[in-house]
Amino acid sequence: MLRLGIIGAGLIVEETHLPLLTGMKNRVLVKGIYSLSGKSSAHLAEKFAIPNVYLTEMEALTDDTDALLIAVPIVKNTEWIKKGLAAGKKVFCEKPAIAALSQKDEFDGMNPGMLSGCVIAENQLFFEFFTDLRKRLASGEWGAPEKFRYIVERNYTLDGVAYLRKEWRANPEHTGGFLFDWGVHHFSLPARLFPSLMLVKGAVSGKAEDGFPSRLEWTLSDGRTEGVFITDYRSPHKSEIFEMTTDIGHLMIGREKTLFKPSDGKVTIREYKGHRLHDSFSAEWDAFLDFALGNAPNPHPLAEGIDEAARFLEFFGKSPRSK
Question: Residue 43's CB: how many other CB atoms inside 10 A?
Fold first, then answer.
């Protein structure tokens, strides 16, 4: 049984994490919650029967918990990861690990064994379809990748107004908030599938709710494989599609199934019920609990999360603009 403390009491904690954790009571006990807004943490403690509302950071860090969920604005992630690890906790941190290139060095000097206790959450990384895809690509079963395209379309102006109006998401000093958050999130998939790919060109355009850009498009290449990413926050559609051409066929991943069509015309279909390209955090929690309870290695170490965020930041800079 893992004893967990929660840092943050926002929308994602209330609507995603706590409902999931409530259904995992045989594996995890939520002992307490802390937020700068005592009213928010008290509300969630009452709603989800959490026994303690931590009134100070010190209470949250010194309670006899085994791990912390860090669910705060991106600009606070680095600070809280360091505090949690220094307190001897395992840390489950929502993406991304850093919000500025200068933060890359903030973990220097910390014990490597301590740093290994942090897991960076990225929804796509843990789903069955993704682990299966990595395995098949590594084995050569679906051939050598040549080109891929990943399109993510949502209209957050219509279906996520409350989410978008969080002050930190619209603040340009917070790396564009929402743009950076989702940019790194989507970048995590090809970054792990094809670690040799480099960002070669990209553009940010449009203007969505509260002033941040509405469309992000970039191209990655290593001279052999090339990929294009498009994330559009004001699309009339709602979809996520990953397509890839290899030297022996064509692969397409939709919301619930994978289809591979080799050049000989035979079609292979794999269905992943309930595992969509962007779903809840259930798969991440399963992976984190396996790790934190000593039953599996770290599924997404801090060093990888920092690298993914840094590669994105190095290209787009602190305030993304067309390049």
Answer: 16
Domain 128-273 annotated CATH 3.30.1360.120: no
The residue with tokens 């397509």 is 243
CA 72 to chain centre: 13
Per-residue pLDDT, 212: 57
Quickly name the fold that domain 2-123 has: Rossmann fold (3.40.50)
pLDDT digits (tens, 9 = 90+) for 60-116: 999 999 999 999 888 888 999 999 999 999 999 987 888 888 888 899 888 888 999
In sequence order, which residues have a C-beta less than 8 Å from that of residue 222 and are 6 or more positions away?
A: 194, 196, 197, 198
Specify the amino acid at residue 246.
Answer: T
Cβ(3)–Cβ(64) below 8 Å: yes
- The H or E element spanning position 275 is none
Q: Torsion-angle region of residue 175: left (phi > 0), alpha (psi -120 to 50) or beta?
A: left
Beta partners for 43?
none
**How do the domains of the chain map onto residue ranges?**
2-123, 128-273
**Residue recorded with tokens 């706590």:** 18
